[in-house]
């Protein structure tokens, strides 16, 4: 099973996980990191490394971050090229995206799932 | 032109706070090592908005450019330093006497907490004092929406706890 890690400023990821599990039930291999303003950047780096180690059971990990260009994305990106793990990063995390991720993750490769999530999230943003 | 020390370089506070608020058109990163890191360079190019110009220069190249542009007055540029020693090198060589904004910087060998996002060593603090005495104005300011505070003034220097409620658990993170 592909692992999911949500990395955001403050408690956005924690609350998204809570909301997700209200709708879709308790999830396996899903964790979050809350990056606070006065946290050291190295703390974030170590947390991401440890969580990837725990979440990767052989099929890779998708890191969902909040802001393209933000520290959460910038540091997560360092793990994209590491040889020990397969990692993909998707920015702009929201509840819709996470729901798609959990419902679509069975039987898909890391690349295919990431692409599915990306395409679905584009369609989910509409003006009503 | 705004000069900023921020170990996170380009991130949310910079892109959303500073660039938009101050109508920055150019970002120049001063670093002797960044251009040798293809992963970081690739990410910078991916995240920077298309209407922003991004340049990376070594300290010496920037000192030269700075001296040329100084006579031409202000421009809409943000100058970013990731490391304190690169900033000191620039200040020494350029004899710059204006404002330098400090945002996020943690020297792990240091234990002097100037604010909740700035930790320096004794040596760095001494050098900061020297540059301050020579006319450089060190300002603590994460985003333009916040009140700017002068660093190394009596109300910050020497305090063991900053005045905005940093808890012990987050101070160790």
Any overview of this molecule?
The complex is a heterodimer of chains A (128) and B (173). Chain A is of the alpha/beta class and 128 residues long. Chain A has five helices and four strands; from the N terminus they run βαβαβαβαα. Chain A has a four-stranded parallel β-sheet with strand order 2-1-3-4, with helices on both faces. In chain A, helix 1 links the parallel strand 1 and strand 2 (30-35). The longest helix of chain A has 15 residues, at 41-55. Chain B has 173 residues and is an alpha/beta fold. Chain B has helices spanning 12-22, 38-47, 59-70, 84-94, 122-133, 168-171; strands at 2-5, 26-30, 53-57, 77-81, 99-102, 105-106, 112-115, 118-120, 137-140, 149-150. In chain B, the strands form two sheets. Chain B has a seven-stranded mixed β-sheet. A three-stranded mixed β-sheet of chain B has the order 6-8-7. In chain B, a hairpin with a 2-residue loop joins strand 7 and strand 8. In chain B, 31% of the residues are buried. The A-B interface holds A 9, 36-43, 67-71, 73-74, 77-78, 80-81 and B 7-12, 15-16, 39, 43, 46-48, 104, 106, 108, 116-117, 142, 166, 170-171, 173.
In short:
The complex is a heterodimer of chains A (128) and B (173). Helix content of chain A is 47%, strand content 17%. Chain A has 128 residues and is an alpha/beta fold.
Would you spell out the secondary-structure blueprint of this structure?
The complex is a heterodimer of chains A (128) and B (173).
Chain A: E1 3-9, H1 12-24, E2 30-35, H2 41-55, E3 61-65, H3 71-77, E4 87-90, H4 95-104, H5 110-124
Parallel strand pairs in A: 1-2, 1-3, 3-4
Helix pairs in contact in A: 1-4, 2-3, 4-5
Chain B: E1 2-5, H1 12-22, E2 26-30, H2 38-47, E3 53-57, H3 59-70, E4 77-81, H4 84-94, E5 99-102, E6 105-106, E7 112-115, E8 118-120, H5 122-133, E9 137-140, E10 149-150, H6 168-171
Parallel strand pairs in B: 1-4, 1-5, 2-3, 2-4, 5-9, 6-8
Antiparallel strand pairs in B: 7-8, 9-10
């Amino acid at each position: 099973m592909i692992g999911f890690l949500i990395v955001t400023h403050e408690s956005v990821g924690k609350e998204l996980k809570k909301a997700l599990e209200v709708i879709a039930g308790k999830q396996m291999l899903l964790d979050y990191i809350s990056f606070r303003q006065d946290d050291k950047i190295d703390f974030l780096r170590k947390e991401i490394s440890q969580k990837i180690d725990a979440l990767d059971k052989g099929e890779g990990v998708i890191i969902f971050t909040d802001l393209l260009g933000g520290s959460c994305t910038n540091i997560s990106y360092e793990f994209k090229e590491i040889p020990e793990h397969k990692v993909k990063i998707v920015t702009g995390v929201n509840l819709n995206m996470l729901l798609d991720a959990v419902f679509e993750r069975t039987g898909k490769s890391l690349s295919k799932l990431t692409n599915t999530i990306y395409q679905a999230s584009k369609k989910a943003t509409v003006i009503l | 032109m705004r000069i900023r020390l921020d170990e996170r370089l380009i991130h949310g506070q910079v892109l959303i706070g500073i660039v938009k608020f101050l109508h920055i058109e150019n970002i120049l990163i001063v670093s002797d090592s960044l251009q040798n890191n293809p992963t970081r360079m690739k990410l910078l190019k991916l995240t920077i908005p298309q209407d922003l110009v991004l340049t990376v220069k070594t300290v010496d190249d920037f000192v030269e450019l700075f001296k040329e542009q100084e006579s031409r007055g202000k421009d809409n540029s943000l100058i970013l330093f990731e490391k304190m020693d690169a900033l000191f090198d620039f200040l020494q060589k350029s004899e710059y006497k204006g404002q330098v904004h400090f945002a996020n910087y943690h020297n792990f060998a240091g234990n002097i907490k100037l604010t909740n996002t700035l930790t320096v060593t004794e040596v760095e603090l001494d050098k900061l004092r020297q540059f301050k005495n020579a006319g450089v104005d060190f300002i603590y300011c994460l985003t333009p929406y916040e009140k700017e505070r002068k660093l190394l003034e009596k109300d910050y220097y020497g305090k063991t706890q900053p005045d905005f409620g940093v808890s012990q658990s987050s101070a160790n993170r």
